[in-house]
Amino acid sequence: MEQRSHLLSFPSSCLLLLLLLLPFVSAGSVAAYKNYTVGDSFGWYDNTEKPNLDYQKWADSKNFSLGDFLIFNTNNNHSVVQTYNFTTYKLCDYDNALDNDTIEWSVSDPSNTATTGVTVAVPLLKEGTTYFFSGDYDGDQCKAGQHFKINVTHGRGLPESLKDPSEQAPAPNSPDVSGEDVTPDTIVPANFDNPKDVSDDNEDSGSITLYLNFLNVKLNVILFLVGFFFIF
């Protein structure tokens, strides 16, 4: 009888330990939104200025998701062009690009002899392949290594601060467009901020409520196991 009690207490103790550790495992499994500094400490320049830079190698080592930001540290002699159009990217030329698939986030001024530092924050608003390059000097900077592509996954989805208001409140009786290969417009909210490395406030409130309910259930299970342990 004493041996049976020992055998039962061992798995019960293990299960109790797992239940106590589960909140910490669950909490760490949800990734926060991130800021990625392009090129790290080297910044955003072409190979004539920084010969050893390989932006594609840098990008391939990262995992990008919706709501993340790319931070470009450069100067006013370099630009930041974001496009979803492979042809635009391949040609290093956005002159004939469409407004709904290409954005120039910073406009350089090659005629300006005074070089000043520039920091450009670009939010990732669409899933799939996204291309970046510098479009200055007729594409020469792009052809000299100042370009890369990334794949953006869904992750946590867009935070509320980056969502297009029209997506949050769709118009009633809107026509259903299907069967057409249409590139969606890229609409950036007027007052977007760099992401905090935490969840949205709304998401936090819901998560906390669910988490407390979950803890309450686990507490009942723990009390039951403790009682079961002492009985046997």
UniProtKB/TrEMBL annotation:
Show where the Phytocyanin domain sits: 34-154
Name one matching Pfam family. Cu_bind_like
Q: Which SUPFAM superfamilies match?
A: Cupredoxins (SSF49503)
Domain of life, per UniProt, equals Eukaryota
Q: Which GO terms describe its molecular function?
A: electron transfer activity
Transmembrane spans: 210-231
Q: Where is this region: Disordered?
A: 159-202
Q: List the protein's name.
A: Phytocyanin domain-containing protein
Q: Which species expresses this protein natively?
A: Jatropha curcas
